[in-house]
Design goal:
zinc; 3-stranded antiparallel β-sheet; 10 helices; 9 strands; 6-stranded parallel β-sheet; alpha/beta; SIR2/SIRT2 'Small Domain'; 34% helix; 2 domains
């Protein structure tokens, strides 16, 4: 018998971060429900074409709940599982960086939609910290240009109208095919291609566990569907994996 520990993949969506005070996008209290106009602030073509949209986008970034958010029990449980010696890979649809703040090594986190904690130039692709860009906004630059080439800066997130990074997506698909257990946590599994990862994992023999308040299109493929709150359900599920003899 092999003593190899199972490779655990965790696909995390907005629902894992709501306990940290970051609202989801499409839920009852989601960003798009509260401010329908916010969606165009993160639509690439609109952002690039309209300086007023960019100025409003910078104010939205400045006021984001992300900067005050701390990892919650679910993020901490994932990091604890990794520290216990179980091979863990996180594939996240979130841009908040809370998995890394919880202590999970950055190399074990694939950010499908990029990160809100950095900015990138749309012209020369230079990257820098979001904190520096927001300091410039606070100092009076309403739409700070790239300091390298003068190009338009945006957050290092995937906006509407942009493709996912094909290399990151390929790595995510590789993990989905190779893992032994695949947790889908806090995501509706309705946004492709991220949602397809759950199906790929199940097709390749992984045990699929879905932890989400609402039904998803992949529930029938799951070995287990959990509707309990993520902050209590996920730590319990992961603790069982880390225990000897499981």
């Amino acid at each position: 018998m092999s003593n190899r520990k199972p490779l655990v993949a965790i696909l995390s969506g907005a629902g894992i971060s709501t306990d940290s005070g970051i609202p989801d996008y499409r839920g009852p209290n989601g960003l798009w429900r509260r401010d329908p106009g916010a969606e165009k602030l993160v639509t690439y073509d609109t952002y690039m074409a309209d300086p007023d949209v960019r100025r409003r986008a910078w104010l939205m970034r400045r006021d984001s709940e992300t900067w005050h958010a701390r990892p919650n029990a679910a993020h901490l449980a994932v990091a604890e599982l990794e520290r216990s010696g179980v091979p863990v890979r996180v594939i996240t649809q979130n841009v908040d960086g809370l998995h890394q703040l919880a202590g999970l090594p950055a190399r074990k986190v694939l950010e499908l939609h990029g990160t809100a904690r950095a900015v990138v130039c749309t012209k020369c692709h230079a990257r820098s910290g979001m904190d520096t860009a927001l300091e410039r906004v606070a100092a009076g630059e309403e739409d700070p240009p790239c300091r390298v080439c003068g190009g338009i800066l945006k957050s290092a997130t995937v906006m509407f109208g942009q493709r996912l990074d094909p290399e990151v997506l390929a790595q995510a698909m590789g993990i989905a095919k190779a893992c032994d257990v695949f947790f889908s946590v806090g995501t509706t599994l309705r946004v492709q291609p991220a949602a397809s990862l759950a199906g790929i994992a199940a097709e390749h023999g992984a045990r699929l566990v879905i932890v989400n308040a609402e039904p998803t299109p992949y529930d029938e493929l799951a070995a287990e569907v959990v509707r309990e709150p993520i902050g209590t359900a996920l730590p319990a599920l992961l603790s069982a994996l880390a225990s000897p003899g499981t």
